[in-house]
Amino acid sequence: MSLTDEGHYGPKQLNLLKVVWGEGFLSPGGTEEIDEIINNTNIAAKSVLDIGCGCGGAAFHLITKHGAKSVEGIDPEPLVIKTAEQLALKNNLSELTTFKCVQPGPLKYDDETFDIVFSKEVFLHIPDKEALLKDVHRVLKPGGMIIVSDWMRIDENPPSEQMQDYIAAEGLDMLMCSLNKYKELLELTNFTDIKIRDRNEWYLQKAKKELEQIEGPLYKKVLDVLGKEETIGAIEIWKKLIGVLKIGEHRPGHFKAKKIT
Fold first, then answer.
1. Residue-level pLDDT at 5
2. What angle do CA 80, 126, 257 make, to 5 degrees?
3. Residue 48, Cα to own-chain centre: how many angstroms?
4. Which fold has domain 11-255?
5. CA 125 and chain centroid, separation
6. What is the pLDDT of residues 160-182, one digit of tens each?
């Protein structure tokens, strides 16, 4: 949402997403969608790097539900890192989590540092995805896995006018590629055992329910957070989102792959 009062994620944006998506989350689906992304992969006792960790919701769930040994979260937004650290204290998880505010660019870790690299709806903000995947491959231990959910497009053609209108309304960098392009790049960067999963239909239904909530039971909470004018704007953005999901151009998806040993 284009409520970028302080960086991409200022206080209004964070409070809105907390109302709609739950405490600690800056993308849809909460803990249930994280379970879908993990999809029975065993990450117990594994060290995890969470790229674009946001307010820490995923990191906490990876530890408490999936048994990760530790999670290091990185994000370029100072306010979300501060929020993640506060929530770690609140949830007694500070000893198992580390959150760092870092600028976009090459990962500042030694080779073969992590068992798992996880990310949820963040790669769309990164222009050079091949360089990113090479860097992820580098910091993974032999046999380590990349596990990602991202917002994607149906193909590599220029965005339609409807899609451009939606992206402009969001007010965020949205450099989306297709699920098939990710598969191609994973192969190119020496990953194996690649699994991909289209989530367009799930998110279409999810976004419709979110809009119903925002216009209904959550309306007063959203109004309290944003004020009337920006609440109207947020509702319009959700409608545009549903529109590009309906035509199938906006296609969230999951992928996972293993580093060749």
1. 46
2. 100
3. 15
4. Rossmann fold (3.40.50)
5. 10
6. 999 999 999 988 789 999 999 99
